[in-house]
Amino acid sequence: MDQINACYHDKSWFIPLHEILMDLNAEQAAREDAGNSSIWAIVNHLIFWNERWLERFESEQFELTSSMNNDDTFHVDPNTVNDAEWTRTLQRLDRVFRRWDTALEESGESKLTTGIASYFNAPWWGVVSNLCLHNAYHIGQIMLLKKQLQHH
Q: Which backbone phi and psi does 62 adopt, to 5 degrees?
């Protein structure tokens, strides 16, 4: 829970994602620069993977196959780049981090130490920890992209 919260809304080693994103408008979030993904695209990617792993955690159903490849998770529909849609995206991001917080709070320690047979027998605590590392990696990207926006 501490790692999830450090990624999203608790100040820790880096500025949390919620704080980085709160003053960006849709145009800024969707701006692509020098072949890099936009902030919005990275946020969509984080939503996808956090929701996917949360579904697996809550349902205890573990299906690895998906019709979506990783590159697809970065997609932003150019026809929906507006502040209302950006706000909906931020609400969805907020919702998945809050749901993770609740799911972890309500799960027993035995759930976190249970190995996932179809996923290299990795324990859930390790999967959640790696998810947080993935979040932190992309939060660093978002921070750099935001700094570049401020210099334009």
A: -125, 95
Q: How confident is the model at residue 47 (pLDDT cuts 50, 70, 90)?
A: very high
What's the CA gap between 55 and 3, in Å, rounded? 19
Token match 């790696």: residue?
A: 130
Query: 71-103: per-residue pLDDT in tens?
Result: 889 999 999 999 999 999 999 999 999 999 999
Please state, in angstroms and rounded to a whole number, the distance separating the CA atoms of residues 133 and 51. 16
Which ranges constitute the DSSP H helices of the chain?
2-8, 17-21, 26-30, 39-59, 83-106, 109-113, 124-150
Q: Which helix (H) or strand (E) holds 10?
A: none
